[in-house]
């Protein structure tokens, strides 16, 4: 499994630099996934993405409107958080922090068959015992710039 790099997904600042640099990875046997987690109301031309059941081509705008930016085109996946706001960054922070914590705590590791059965029987509690063969997932957080919301991630 290759690396997962999680950014805000926008075509600005360090997110753009990551998108520009990472595709130069010469090791195709371990692909690097650049995952953008963005607040829906901050994505310029987000209406283009309202397509159900098929892929869509996104044409990035050169929007200079405050609180909006185009998506960085080299990201391999995007997760959009729609908190109902328009042009207000930060709606993705809580989700992103929870996802990164889940990855770091081995939440996505395969469960042993007995744990899967137990999980199905008990929907009111989370079974945290994982298969013994799962490798730990190292998580590195690199903060290059940011405002007050940076400490929340």
UniProtKB/TrEMBL annotation:
<dbReference type="Pfam" id="PF18139">
    <property type="entry name" value="LSDAT_euk"/>
</dbReference>
<dbReference type="InterPro" id="IPR050927">
    <property type="entry name" value="TRPM"/>
</dbReference>
<protein>
    <recommendedName>
        <fullName>TRPM SLOG domain-containing protein</fullName>
    </recommendedName>
</protein>
<feature type="domain" description="TRPM SLOG">
    <location>
        <begin position="2"/>
        <end position="153"/>
    </location>
</feature>
<dbReference type="GO" id="GO:0099604">
    <property type="term" value="F:ligand-gated calcium channel activity"/>
</dbReference>
<dbReference type="GO" id="GO:0005886">
    <property type="term" value="C:plasma membrane"/>
</dbReference>
<dbReference type="InterPro" id="IPR041491">
    <property type="entry name" value="TRPM_SLOG"/>
</dbReference>
